[in-house]
Amino acid sequence: MDDTTLNFFDGETLTKMSRNEDSNTNIRRYTKADFDREVFSEDKDNADKLLSILQYKQNIILQGAPGVGKTYTAKRLAYMKMGYKDDSRLMQVQFHQSYTYEDFVMGLRPQSDGTFKFEAGPFYTFCKKAEVDPTKEYFMVIDEINRGNMSKILGEAFSLIEKDHRGEKITLKYNNIQFGVPKNLYIIGTMNTADRGLVQLDYALRRRFAFITLLPAYSSTGFRAIMARSQNVKFNRIARSIKDLNIEISKDDMLGPGFMIGHSYFCLGHKVTDEDLSNIIEYEIMPLLDEYWYDFPDKVERWHEKFTKILNG
């Protein structure tokens, strides 16, 4: 392999990275007050707790039921930690079952002409970007982190994400270059606890992350404000019924709290209308209940009748 293949970042590129020349010039301050306003939680100390565990572990996974806003929270936690809404210091990727070391770190990648080219992946690239800008914090958000095999995806870099090994160097197998995960890089993963088709995370990965469970927040100040702005009595009744539904789901021996219905289904960015409610219930909530209780159609029908009565009332 020639020298040009090994040299992913020349001096000019590194200088641009350190100056953030590709960053958004409209960067604005982002405070805990912004986080509390945008991220719904029934825990008034939510922001402080998340910041504390992120600082302590440096690698965290936000886990929870569908619709609790895991990715939304992850990005705003990054903004709050850096103090700015600066997307140039945040990278978001999504794992899937076919995601590989070559996709994430580096490797030979097929080209349109049938040849292969040696390319750096997003993790390698982002680590290098953070490394040349050590006075600022950088954040990698990994959606659906449990859909990929983390140890295979990271390869020999797997040990380097651990906080105690930040800054250490190892030799990468593809190019014999020394590589390390910088101390100013934070990793925030998200994980859907209601996905039956995924294997459990191995203990080696669990030891490198702190796990934080996000819960539905229908009683939070932020969600109550959405209901108040909508001025829709049916919306209020549906929300109360979803809270009752979540109690039933959490007590179900085959399901549990990890399968509850999150509040973000109803966070539409505008006043929630009767038509919105009908679409959410009919095409999002009910298909989910069909999946949850596929062996108990009577339960599904009972809830469908209850929601229909509210919507038609």
What layout of secondary structure does this protein have?
Layout: H1 3-6, H2 11-19, H3 32-38, H4 46-57, E1 59-64, H5 70-82, E2 90-94, H6 101-104, E3 106-110, E4 116-120, H7 122-131, E5 138-143, H8 150-154, E6 170-171, E7 178-179, E8 185-192, H9 203-208, E9 210-214, H10 221-230, H11 233-251, H12 274-292, H13 297-312
Task: Tell me what the structure shows.
This protein is an alpha/beta fold. The protein has 2 domains: 3-214, 3-Layer(aba) Sandwich (Rossmann fold); 221-312, no CATH class. The protein has 13 helices and 9 strands. The protein has helices at 3-6, 11-19, 32-38, 46-57, 70-82, 101-104, 122-131, 150-154, 203-208, 221-230, 233-251, 274-292, 297-312; strands spanning 59-64, 90-94, 106-110, 116-120, 138-143, 170-171, 178-179, 185-192, 210-214. The strands form 3 sheets. A 5-stranded parallel beta sheet has the order 2-5-8-1-9. A two-stranded antiparallel ribbon has the order 3-4. Strands 6-7 form a two-stranded antiparallel ribbon. Mean pLDDT is 89; it is low at 1-7 and 17-23.
